[in-house]
Known about the structure:
about 190 residues; 5 helices; DUF4192 family protein; PspAB-like
Amino acid sequence: MGLLDILLGRTKPVAPDLDRLFALPSAAVTLEAAAGFTPTGQGAVCFATVEGAAFEQTHREVRALLDADRDRDGPPVELRQDDYGYSWLVSHRAPDQLAPLVTDLHAVNSQMEVNGFGPQLLCSLAGFGDRSGRRLALVYLYKRGTFYPFAPLRGEPQRRDNTLELQVRAAIAGDLPIEQDLGRWFPVWGAPGL
């Protein structure tokens, strides 16, 4: 970064640290103790769709890699498109298998990165729920290397539970690097895995 960048207020982008995903299981213990949320066993990686044979080959490799780790009766890895045109690779595990789910998310991100599609990666999320039916996602922002909670309000489309999100932030701040800029806590409406 040069002097001109400093004067103009430009900052060097944070390099993604995918190993931060492995802190999710310890954060899940804290989250359960503090707020009663437990893993749902669902997680997803979101990326901007790119056309082309290389990208399709990467999709096939990632799905084959993740499906090879499942038994024949286990749920498959799914590729979904959302209403905004983004792709989601969704992994399903048993609720008590958060560590393998995190490994799946890490593998997808790593494979995309290795094949040159890192710039298309947007976020990863792991789903949580409580006994009253509330849903919550811990979202990892790939380009920022930080996490934030996202809690949609049940039964109210396009509304989120900001109070719960702030409570979760306070509870897990010691376990995960939390995104400090609340303007970057993007809603992931209808995200698979949530």
